[in-house]
Amino acid sequence: MMTGPKTPGAPRCRLTPIASAVALALLGALPAHAQQAGDAAAAPEQLKLESVVVTANRRVERLEDVPASISVLSEEAMQRNNVRELVDIINLSPALSVSVGTQVGTNSINMRGIGTTSNNLGIEGDVAILVDDIPYSQTQQAFKDMTDMARVEVLKGPQSTLFGKSAIAGAVVMTTKPIGAGPMQTRVSVYDTSDHEYRVAASLSGRLTDTFGMRLYASKTNFPGMLHNLTNDSMQNGSGAKTFMAKLQWKLSNDLDVLITPRFDHSLATGNTAAITSIGDGVGYLYNKNYTALSNTAVLRGIHVSQWNREIRNDSPTGLEATDRALGVRVNYAFPESSPLAGHSLTSITSVDNNLSNDFRDNDNIDLISTFYQVNAAGKPSGIADAPMINGTLESKTSTQEFRLTSPDSGNFRYLVGLWAARNTLYRTYLRGNAFVKETNYTNYDTNSGSLTHAIYANTNWDFAPKQSLSAGLRYNHEANDYSFHTIDSLSSTAANNVHTGENLYVAPQNKENAVTGKLGYTYHLNDEMMMYGTASTGHKGVAYDMTSGANNVNVFAHLPLAPEKATSFEAGFKANLWNNRATLNAAIFQTRFRDYQTSATERFTDGSQASVLYSIPSLQTRGFEADATVLATRALLLNASMAYTRAVVRDWTQGPCYSGATDCTIPNLLVPGSFLRDASGGMMPNAPKWKASMGGEYTLPAVSWMPYVAAINAQWRTQAKVQGAISQDPSLQRPGYGIFDLGASIKDAKGKYKLSFGVKNLFDHHYAVGNVGTFLNFKKAAGGSDIRSYGWQPARDAFRYTSIRLDVAF
């Protein structure tokens, strides 16, 4: 299915319609990697890069024929760079970044600096994640093991036309490995690191008969963590999972085949705890059971407070445990030659997904009972001796149905039309803090929501002249939402100490909305190897509801639902195959504006308490430049590089949140009378580095006649500029830039049955954070004094150097 070498003046080569249909039906993974030295040696005149194919337009196309900025990671590239989870993909794709919250379930994905920075289940993400054409209903489902992956496509800019409302900023499309074309084959992979991570995976794949093939995959992984909990001598901020996947394919006739893909995984991530890096002097008014104030040294006993501290003291666990059960059914019918639709294919994709997760956290970050806070003017402590915790459950059920009619890949006019339906239900329970202690931010609620979406979409490509093409897409989306929020009990954030709000039930009227999104692109082929393009596209994400503890404030409900989020984007780019197809270059400039951007931020009230509140920001903008290149410099040397310059800013937001120490909080809060906000216009989007780049390569060592093995060494360097850690623009949460260098080597037999790989991650031991926290210990001020400020950091997985070894065996 790869395109061959081109002849000058020949028409652009396209895949056959049957090949496209089969490729999508099998969820095929075509390599996006240079030929290895052994292949090139057999045909020296064919020394070139292999064609990269993508499915950005829901059909298999060469990357250089698609007028859009797309980054592709192949199976070989992911293995070479030890891609384990989504954050590793983000490390290798300059257009992506991640916002790490206080819990794993609050992590968010950003594309070109824009992403839903929220722990709120009442809104969808801005970046869609799809695995084998099936979307995740919640962003948190993506933060787990990436198993059995063959290819990852990063589609930048609004993708709402083909991928729906949750792709308003972009989409990450993952393709798992296909069923083998030959007899059954077993592959086993074993991975181990110097910091005690292990991964074991096995697959069995191939054809049992001419009409039936299958692929079975299972894996078990575990990483203890980055932080040492001195309280119970355990590790924290780790992850682990058990996964089972299957693909069962029947070819019922020459024109009809069915693919069934069940999946089960259970994961446990013990993040995102912060370790303290600095703290002010003094005695904080945290009380022990004798009502005696606790000193800093007592609370932090044994912890060596420093810039790169990895020691903590927690008496309650922190993490996210999730179980996911999913089933996909794909039916593909290729119309026979005798049909009026000869050459067309009709595809049905059905999916169901049930996800049950439990998130929990030590809410005071210490291991002493410290909830004896002042409750009246006399200063009498409450006497509560329970550790403050967070514990929440989320049950989501998603079902989807899609039909696609795809025209032949040949001809000057090609099209795809589709129907989409999805039902999504969420049920959430949440308990935080202690019932009689306001300082623990006590709240207890349950909430549920449901949405039903129907859409019709179309995408076309028209070669209207020998060197010119137009592409266009349109989507009509209808959505109905139901929402309720039940406060079981809470301590009001703005009332006097320990005044409970009591029980409250808010049921929103059903919301229905219609939306139309589209895209239009123009392509000019300078020759068979170079093209320029320009595109315009729009994105739309539906209304949002506040489904967090901030909704306990009755003023919040008066402003719900928040208006739909909308985007308008323009992009221009250049793509080229150079040096007789031994080098590729892709570059793009872009600008996207968002209106009524939905996000959460911490709201501080006049009484000193705080809560997460859902906001609608009038206007954002991201603009910049991206480029990536691959060069097969010699038969043995492959080089790659990618970079992105991004300026993601808040254009207009006069109702921005205050942060601790802010001196410009003078604007009356429209949601909470009596409290004040600040003008955050002009601020930077969080976790959106101005510069981000990656470059590396692989060198295959010269063959030795007496040794039937192929050896190679590889290296990868990535860097990024400093980032703002919070949309509030809190200067204490800024994080500096960094550069990380990885080194590796591999040796394999000539037949590819055995491969042994070695790696050193973060060779120069450059420490860096993926998240940081200001005043995360609740030290209270002494009489007449000021609060004791403390700061912490969340180290990245490779913030400290470690080594790895991996063995892959096929038999």
From TrEMBL:
Presence of the UniProt keyword ATP-binding in the record: no
Keyword presence, Coiled coil: no
Organism: Duganella alba
Keywords, ordered alphabetically: Cell outer membrane, Ion transport, Iron, Iron transport, Membrane, Receptor, Signal, TonB box, Transmembrane, Transmembrane beta strand, Transport
Annotated TonB-dependent receptor-like beta-barrel domain residues: 334-763
Family statement drawn from the similarity comment of this UniProt entry: Belongs to the TonB-dependent receptor family.
Lineage: Bacteria, Pseudomonadati, Pseudomonadota, Betaproteobacteria, Burkholderiales
GO cellular component terms given for this protein: cell outer membrane
Protein known as: TonB-dependent receptor
Motif (TonB box) on chain: 51-57
